[in-house]
């Protein structure tokens, strides 16, 4: 089959590789219909997350059709059109039983690579470094899905492939971030980053009952799309101070909750950007955590800061601000299985149309070009749908 592979820092290629096979009686083989670029991939493409090996197939946000099942698969069948959450759950361990699917104790066969750093390993994820399981990713014609009954969700007929695609990762990640904010009627939620996850987090905050959702970014096409989702915006490239803008927009109190949907390669302005960029380039730190710092400073006292961005070792973390303002800090990799039924309902009812995130639709053979456009924000690119 054909697949998009990682071959070194900023070295990608589409290659012919072996087809996946059933390895476990609970496995499913999926013919990938759609897969998409994701900002999380840029962290290992740029060399800030270790653990990729030459020839690894990457990609973790996808949907498709089941073409083969293991003998113990009971709930899904060949021919089903399904979407698959990016983190792999087993539905049997303590964490899955408590809806903490990304913390699954079963699905990471390389737990020993994570445990020294994390204390306890996370669950596995498709196409996202060997410490996260070393699974082949979704930027391919076929992909093996472990525990098919747990991780394959048949798509209701009224939902298009393009809408279902983002229910794999961007939508549940954003929705989880908003869910962490314990939104009440009248609340204002501010979201840093207007990529796919940030837009879905802000829209989800409104769906959960927030009165206002404000998105902070500097890319014109992202800010424009935020408006299409009914969101307010701040262009931090034009604003003198994001914190002062938010203070003014909230009557001096600040947002009730703040969501960081940016992560370790955040962009800022002034001396902070110069400092973070220099330290990151010299590998003296892994993160440019400007969005996280701003979110902590901007949040009202007693509020919630929800962190969806991917981080490694963060310099200058303002823990004193968290303590003295009485903030609640919540974070996780997404527990997509927990939210899937609810997200299907939102899309079917017309409350949410994640297909709006697609700005480019390309064959997988143009995957290298897709990531170049996506990474460098060329041609107004927000997300590229890849068709194997």
From TrEMBL:
Needed cofactors: Zn(2+)
InterPro entries: ADH-like_C, ADH-like_N, ADH_Zn_CS, GroES-like_sf, NAD(P)-bd_dom_sf
UniProt keyword terms in alphabetical order: Metal-binding, Oxidoreductase, Zinc
Gene Ontology molecular functions: oxidoreductase activity; zinc ion binding
PROSITE patterns: ADH_ZINC (PS00059)
Domain Alcohol dehydrogenase-like C-terminal residue range list: 196-265
Cytoplasm recorded as keyword: no
Residues annotated as domain Alcohol dehydrogenase-like N-terminal: 25-156
Family (UniProt): Belongs to the zinc-containing alcohol dehydrogenase family.
Name by which UniProt lists this protein: Glutathione-dependent formaldehyde dehydrogenase
